Amino acid sequence: MEEAGENRQDAPAPAPVSRPFLGLFALAHLGAFIAFIPMLNLLLPLKAELIDPAGKAVLLSQVMLWGALAAAVTNLAAGVLSDATRGPFGRRRPWIVVGALAVAGAHGLVFAAATPLQLLVAVLIFQAAVNVMFGPLNAVLPDVVPGRQKGLAAALAGLALPGAGLFTAGVLAVALTRLDLRFVAVAAAVPLLVLPFALRLREPQRPRPATRVGLPSLAALTDRDFLMAFASRLLVQVAITFNVLYLLFYLQETARLGPFADLRPEAVLGGLLGASTAVSLAAGFLGGVLSDRLRRRRLFVTAGGLAMAGGAALLVAAPGWPGPLVAQLLFGLGLGLYSTVDTALVAEVLPDPRAAGRDLGLMNVAITAPQVLAPLLGLGLLSLFGGDFRWVYAASALFAFFGALAVTGIRRVR
Fold first, then answer.
1. Weakest mean pLDDT among 38-52, 121-135, 186-200
2. Is there a domain that residue 214 lies in?
3. What CATH number is attached to the domain comprising 188?
4. Taking Cα atoms as reference points, which of 343, 356, 346, 363 lies closest to residue 80?
5. Looking at the DSSP assignment, which residues form a beta bridge with residue 256?
6. What is the pLDDT of residue 143?
7. 10 located within any domain
């Protein structure tokens, strides 16, 4: 397996990183995912319902669509600008610090929104803040971590997504019932988790490139392996966005919850997220470590995508309890495998490590674009099929399935 992040374009090999670095790296990624997963999964749906109870699904889809466009533009810009940043504080660190603080403030704006327009403006600011932080933070992996530690580092970073789900489930959906306290908890958690890593980060000195690699470019998409990794992430992220965005409404209006029918839907959501997160944490960490030892990434990424497809399909086929529970367990297992090992895989298919921020910004469009595609598709499916959320999850299953297959087209990484 070629160590693309080290050997291509004559990039110097990073020195091994320490255990404290890996621990703070994992916590920073947890903070980055807490910055947006609770917002998308719980806080924004509840806020949309509070502002427009009758049109909550339409309002949610609309603000998500425009917010995702802001996220894509900001992610690309942050990657390019962090590549070009020079100074005593490093390339990535200033952007991570500013973004983490801005995210905390943006949560206050979303909470204060009282009209659809105010909510839209707040979400635009929120998405921009998240991606000022998130793009440069992702670039730390290929910048600093050597190839033989990429799987472990990715495994630890991969715990962030299910960890953010667990935070959403245990702290926000169950322990806290007041909306204001939920927003305060997230706004405080993000800088507390991200800033210790950012402030202690020591980035390697890199020579100024002869060519202007920091300019916006789609050139990485001409690299076949990068293109296939991009396609896989794009398709699978549509499936993930469907699950994140509409699960609460699915539980409210489609699922038959049996013995839990008398509970608040957000409490049931918390229980499902907690259970799926436990599975996701175990699967993600084990998959990341094994992908290092076996020197295989594609097998685990493909298996994760297929498991997510199976979980989404089960929500269609078995809306009665315990169908939603089994479906979320299967989806969580796939999510853990996919999100962890795909991070290491992407770090190894970057065409030019000198422009890691730029190319990861482009790769991250495969995360932000689904936030446009999924609400548009969701609106269309819900309008066409009379608000039946099972059709949304049927589409989710198809996207995850084809996203899993796309990884098999990668050749440079096993």
1. 38-52
2. no
3. 1.20.1250.20
4. 356
5. 320
6. 74
7. no
**Is the per-residue pLDDT at 166 higher than 50?**
yes
Tens of pLDDT along 84-133?
777 777 778 889 999 999 999 999 999 999 999 999 999 999 999 998 99
Classify the C-alpha dihedral 82-229-244-328 as positive or negative: negative
Q: Give the other-Cβ count within 10 Å of 268's Cβ.
A: 22
| Average pLDDT estimate for 330-337 | 92
Is 314 within the bounds of a domain? Answer: yes
In tens, the pLDDT along 212-228 reads 444 556 667 777 888 89
Return the bridge partners of 133, or none: none
Amino acid letter, residue 210: A
> Per-residue b/e over 233-256, b at no fewer than 16 CB within 10 Å?
bbbbbbbbbbbbbbbbbbbbebbe
In this structure, how many other beta carbons lie within 10 angstroms of the beta carbon of residue 66? 17
Distance CA 339, CA 157 (A): 9
- Nearest-angstrom CA–CA distance, 374 and 368: 10
User: Number of structural domains, the chain?
Assistant: 1
Q: Is 118 part of a structural domain of the chain?
A: yes
Give 111's contacts (C-beta < 8 A, 6+ positions apart): 47, 179, 180, 183
